[in-house]
Design goal:
single chain; alpha/beta; D-Maltodextrin-Binding Protein, domain 2; 2 domains; 9 strands; binds aspartic acid
Length: 327
């Protein structure tokens, strides 16, 4: 009798042991998640990412820890994410530059569409044309006249070839037939520090990085790059309404993961991202900085996948026509 009891309980224990590790393995997330930002800390993508990370962490019950991996217009960080284990513990938040990279970087080691799982779009951030305070120009027209008169000597800051700040200035220079000299950074966080210090002259950057600096008079704001005015900087005219009719550039941001995530991880990441986009704290901070979350139907893997595929084609044409190459 005693032997049978022992055998039975041993059997039950073996069964329990067989079940326990399996359920522990599938309980995602079981540890903190690394969120790669392929730009320096303190910049606009970093600002968006940290807000989203905090909110998603609450929903997922695990910390989402931002790691800044800047350089080469974001391609270093995205290459790292494309090669990471597809287990849901490494994700990235990046922006429009993910779509411009293939046209610019011949040495790109990943395909932005096929080598990633697409989690969802987050926000479309307007950009602003700004300068250091020492620039005398009082409005966009004076600024453009000054840049034109300096014949290439005016300097502009950007976050690497293909970054949003680089693209915005590129389109601007092409439309206005003006030249400036670029100064590259690992992100526009450090670029902003140098603009505040007067080390270069102008920049086109997201409102998430420029709104407070403009409001506090630490830099000069000239115009916004969207067709509509932006509520966080209501005094700035649109480039479209004055200097460059038709001009429109904004930096959409989204979340990606390495290709091949387990369905459970994808589902939980998508649900947590969508919850973050409805989080009043995220909505409030976004509004302060001149942006808002995208509609929920855009914050999905399918919508992001088709967006990135069409944006890669769109920018390939623009970049080839401009004759720009990063290497
Ligand atoms: N705003 C940057 C860009 O120009 C990137 C960043 O630092 O977030 O792409």
């Amino acid at each position: 009798m005693a032997t049978i009891k022992l055998a039975l309980s041993a059997g039950i224990m073996a069964l329990a042991a067989a079940i326990a590790p399996a359920s522990a393995q599938t309980a995602y997330p079981a540890k903190s998640i690394t969120l790669v930002v392929p730009a320096a800390a303190g910049g606009p993508t970093d600002t968006v990412a940290r807000l989203i990370a905090e909110s998603m962490g609450k929903t997922l019950g695990q910390s989402v820890i931002v790691e800044n991996v800047g350089g080469a217009g974001g391609t270093i960080g995205m290459a790292r994410v494309s090669k990471a284990a597809p287990d849901g513990y490494t994700v990235a938040i990046w922006h429009i530059a993910h779509a411009t990279a293939p046209a610019l970087y011949d040495s790109l080691k990943y395909n932005p569409v096929n080598d990633f799982d697409h989690i969802g779009r987050i926000t479309d951030v307007p950009m602003t044309l700004v300068s250091k305070t020492a620039v005398a120009a009082k409005d966009v027209k004076e600024l453009i006249d000054w840049i034109r008169g300096e014949k290439g000597k005016v300097t502009y800051g950007h976050a690497g070839i293909g970054s949003a700040s680089h693209l915005c200035t590129l389109v601007l220079m092409r439309e206005l037939k003006i030249e400036m000299t670029g100064v590259g950074y690992r992100g526009t966080g450090p670029a902003m520090n140098d603009l505040l210090g007067g080390q270069f002259d102008v920049m086109c950057d997201q409102t998430t990085n420029t709104t407070n600096q403009i409001k506090e008079g630490r830099i000069k704001g000239y115009a916004v790059t969207t067709k509509a005015k932006v509520s966080s900087v209501p005094n700035l005219p649109t480039l479209d309404s004055g200097a460059i009719p038709g001009f429109e550039v904004s930096a959409w941001h989204a979340m990606w993961a390495p290709k091949g995530l387990p369905k459970q991880a994808t589902d939980k990441l998508v649900a947590a991202l969508q919850a973050a986009l409805k989080d009043p704290k995220v909505i409030g901070r976004f509004a302060d900085l001149g942006t808002e979350p995208v509609a929920t139907n855009l914050a999905t893997p399918d919508a992001l996948k088709s967006q990135i595929a069409s944006e890669v084609k769109r920018w390939d044409a623009v970049i080839k026509a401009a004759g720009v190459k990063a290497n």
